[in-house]
């Protein structure tokens, strides 16, 4: 039906973009930064668990269903005033953004609320969702009503089509990441991250791709999670990766766009400039991966395990978290939507 894949979409956007461009020198510098990490533990699937205490330790059905409900809600955590947003205290730590979601879900499970069970969230009420996702500050997690609607919708479909467990959906994909991604977007409407650009229908599928990636990670790339085509998954076009790619000099914004973002102006989902930011970021990470693989080849550095766009994305996202202060001067684009 003429819908471009995320990679094709990104290439098309990058070739026709006006306010955002990929910087070749910056791409190379980021590849060199990653080369150092490539031989270490950071650029490996095991980091998904090793580095993040809120992610499940296990690699079982419960862990897969934890990933599914988390990635179903994995969108739009940014707050109007960046330094004052939703925060969740859990296990002695205080978490914000994506981690606030993980902390809230783990807190619910500790309170005996079966939030990872489709039977529960298919009919969970708005008040119950407000309680589960409650913030320790006076700023709630954004789009609570949308999150409630999506939980009910997604839970009902998981019960009807997949016996209430995302593991059944994974098994239907016959160990193909692409099949799983398409099964998810066909089955669950809230994952359909598709839009238009210059007359073409394009897809970024950010939440569907991170869901496949996190399923691969939580299953440690083994058994049901041994996707033979996992390297076909691209980076996830969210609002943090563009920010870190600009900070590292691999992506450049026009003066007009930068001025707009510095003023905190919102962009709507599907706006030309919003699509250019997401598409060029995705394409930028593809080029960084190609450059890194070239450097590894040239320097004869053995990287155990495959380097793919998922691992580069995870690394760059974590890098953005660790360099929040240094990145303060670089704006992230503000789009309020359920897709990323
Ligand atoms: N591209 C990309 N986007 C990601 C993630 C993650 C969480 N992944 C963790 C799991 C394994 C990895 O090691 C990561 O540590 C969340 N997001 C998106 O970011 C935004 C939240 O940002 P902030 O407001 O700062 O929390 C929001 O759109 C959310 O959907 C990622 O990995 N890549």
Automatic annotation (TrEMBL):
Magnesium as UniProt keyword: no
Catalytic activity annotation: queuosine 5'-phosphate + H2O = queuine + D-ribose 5-phosphate
Classification via InterPro entries: Q_salvage
A Pfam family matched in the record: Q_salvage
EC number: 3.2.2.-
Keyword hit for Methyltransferase: no
Signal peptide segment: none
Domain of life (superkingdom): Eukaryota
Keywords: Hydrolase
Parts of the chain that traverse the membrane: none
Role of this protein: Catalyzes the hydrolysis of queuosine 5'-phosphate, releasing the nucleobase queuine (q). Is required for salvage of queuine from exogenous queuosine (Q) that is imported and then converted to queuosine 5'-phosphate intracellularly.
The family this protein is said to belong to: Belongs to the QNG1 protein family.
Listed name of the protein: Queuosine 5'-phosphate N-glycosylase/hydrolase
């Amino acid at each position: 039906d003429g819908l471009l894949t995320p990679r094709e979409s990104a290439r098309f956007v990058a070739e026709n973009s006006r306010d955002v461009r990929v910087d070749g020198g910056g791409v190379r510098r980021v590849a060199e930064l990653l080369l150092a990490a490539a031989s270490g533990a950071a650029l490996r699937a095991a980091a998904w668990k090793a580095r993040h205490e809120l992610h499940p330790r296990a690699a079982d059905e419960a862990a897969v269903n934890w990933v599914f409900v988390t990635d179903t809600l994995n969108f739009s955590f940014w707050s109007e005033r960046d330094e004052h947003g939703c925060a969740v205290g859990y296990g002695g730590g205080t978490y914000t953004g994506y981690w606030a979601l993980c902390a809230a879900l783990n807190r619910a499970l500790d309170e005996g609320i079966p939030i990872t069970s489709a039977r529960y969230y298919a009919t969970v009420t708005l008040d119950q969702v407000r309680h589960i996702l409650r913030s320790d500050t006076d700023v709630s997690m954004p789009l609570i009503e949308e999150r409630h609607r999506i939980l009910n919708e997604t839970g009902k479909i998981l019960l009807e089509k997949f016996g209430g467990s995302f593991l059944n959906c994974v098994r239907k994909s016959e160990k193909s990441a692409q099949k799983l991604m398409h099964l998810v977007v066909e089955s669950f409407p809230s994952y359909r991250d598709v839009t238009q650009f210059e007359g073409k229908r394009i897809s970024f599928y950010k939440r569907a791709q991170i869901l496949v990636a996190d399923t691969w990670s939580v299953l440690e790339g083994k058994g049901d999670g041994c996707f033979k085509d996992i390297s076909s998954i691209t980076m996830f076009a969210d609002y943090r990766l563009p920010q870190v790619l600009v900070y590292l000099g691999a992506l450049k914004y026009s003066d007009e766009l930068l001025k707009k973002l510095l003023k905190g102006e919102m962009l709507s989902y599907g706006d030309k400039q919003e699509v250019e930011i997401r598409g060029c970021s995705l394409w930028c990470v593809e080029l960084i991966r190609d450059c890194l693989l070239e450097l590894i080849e040239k320097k004869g550095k053995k990287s155990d395990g495959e380097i793919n766009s998922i691992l580069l994305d995870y690394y760059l996202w974590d890098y953005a978290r660790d360099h929040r202060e240094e990145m303060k001067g670089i704006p992230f684009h503000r789009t309020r939507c359920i897709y990323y």
